Amino acid sequence: MGMNYLVAAYMLIWAVLCVFLVQIFRRQGKLLGELKRLRDEMKRAGSESSTDS
């Protein structure tokens, strides 16, 4: 009987850990996308300012 609780506890821990890791990877993907967008925007702004001079 006690072994069932132990298995359930381990399953719960692994499930929570998996959800946490998925959230981290999703956030990292969003941050990388935002970083790429900002880099592209900076390049465009730099090229526009050099042609204005």
What does this entry look like structurally?
This protein is mainly alpha-helical. The protein has one domain (1-41). The chain contains one helix and no strands. It has one helix spanning 2-52. It is rod-shaped and about 75 Å long. The mean pLDDT is 92.
Number of domain units: 1
**Beta-strand percent range:** under 5%
Distance between the termini: 79 Å
Query: How many helical elements?
Result: 1
Largest sheet: none
Order of helices and strands: H
Mean pLDDT: 92
Structural class: mainly alpha
Low-confidence stretches: none
Radius of gyration: 23 Å
Fraction of residues in helix: over 70%
Count of beta strands? 0
The geometry reads as rod-shaped
Describe the structure in brief.
The protein contains one helix and no strands. The chain is mainly alpha-helical.
Entry keywords:
single chain
Record the SSE blueprint.
Blueprint lengths: L1 H51 L1
